[in-house]
């Protein structure tokens, strides 16, 4: 099961994509760690010997919460922010593409602060981009305004293809233009990236973008839109992190 299969399974199990929770982010973070341990001998050895520890949803270099941090602990057992070896930020732009500016700024701020703390830190960002023109907003609207009937009458119908949900909760439907997904991708592609040896540049080491068809009415699926093969991109990302980790932290290729 790929990391994207895990995300889709979680959405189906929950009934809908909740952009107010960290479900997808936690899945991505844990899978990256597991796949790096399998692919990168240096990373796996550092985990086993205690040279580095893994933290999820912890204090990051920008004084906000970072989704994944790997590195040596300080004397209090928390991340030493001057010695972070890997930092991952997981974002999504699904319900409303107008929120892409805020998500962009989150990643941009993190890559700058990480570089100030330690230029060698491997900084990775992952982004789920929704490709649906209509999205039924569950956490901010449907569940909020229908608390008594949500679990019993509404939740079982979500992500099943029940088209009556669109009209029954028409005031909770968010709309995106057909051009929005491409515009979002184009914006995030302007984030600077760097090669493994270019630690002097305050840039991302990898940006992973995965298009998803998520509208909380129809069954969710990994989309083939935007010319992105997310499965292949994920494997390239793991390989790139593995090579970069070995080069920066163990002096080899």
Question: Explain this structure to me?
Answer:
This protein is α/β, with parallel strands linked by helices and 253 residues long. The protein has one domain (3-250). It has helices at residues 3-14, 23-39, 41-49, 100-117, 138-145, 150-154, 164-168, 180-188, 230-250, and strands at 53-59, 65-71, 86-93, 122-130, 134-136, 173-175, 206-213, 221-222. The strands form two sheets. The chain has a six-stranded mixed beta sheet with strand order 1-2-3-4-7-8, with helices on both faces. A two-stranded antiparallel sheet has the order 5-6. Strand 7 and strand 8 form a beta hairpin. The longest helix is centred in the last third of the chain and has 21 residues, at 230-250. The two termini are 29 Å apart.
How many domain modules? 1
How many helical elements?
A: 9
Radius of gyration: 19 Å
N-to-C CA distance = 29 Å
The 3D shape can be described as: elongated
Number of strands: 8
What structural class should be given to the helix and strand makeup? alpha/beta
The order of strands across the largest sheet is: 1-2-3-4-7-8
Give the SSE order as H and E letters.
HHHEEEHEEHHHEHEEH
What portion of the residues fall into strands of 2 or more residues?
15-25%
Largest sheet composition: 6 strands, mixed
Query: Which spans have pLDDT < 50 for at least 5 consecutive residues?
Result: none
């Amino acid at each position: 099961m790929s990391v994207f299969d895990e995300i889709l399974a979680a959405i189906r199990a929950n009934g809908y994509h909740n952009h107010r929770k960290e479900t997808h982010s936690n899945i991505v973070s844990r899978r990256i760690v597991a796949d790096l341990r399998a692919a990168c001998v240096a990373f796996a050895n550092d985990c086993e010997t205690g040279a580095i520890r893994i933290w999820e949803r912890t204090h990051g270099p920008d004084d906000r919460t970072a989704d994944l941090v790997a590195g040596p602990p300080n004397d209090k057992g928390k991340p030493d922010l001057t010695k972070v070896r890997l930092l991952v930020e997981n974002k999504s732009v699904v319900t409303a593409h107008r929120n892409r500016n805020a998500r962009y700024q989150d990643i941009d701020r993190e890559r700058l602060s990480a570089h100030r703390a330690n230029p060698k830190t491997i900084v990775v960002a992952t982004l789920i981009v929704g490709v649906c023109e209509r999205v039924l907003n569950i956490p901010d609207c449907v569940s909020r305004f229908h608390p008594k009937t949500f679990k019993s009458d509404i939740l079982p119908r979500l992500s099943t293809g029940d088209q009556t949900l669109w009209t029954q909760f028409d005031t909770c439907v968010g709309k995106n233009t057909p051009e929005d997904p491409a515009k979002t991708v184009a914006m995030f592609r302007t984030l600077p990236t760097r090669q493994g040896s270019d630690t002097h540049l305050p840039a991302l080491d990898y940006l992973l973008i995965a298009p998803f068809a998520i509208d909380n009415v129809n069954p969710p699926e990994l989309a083939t839109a935007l010319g992105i093969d997310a499965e292949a991109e994920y494997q390239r990302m793991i390989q790139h992190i593995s090579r970069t980790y070995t080069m920066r932290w163990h002096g080899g290729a």
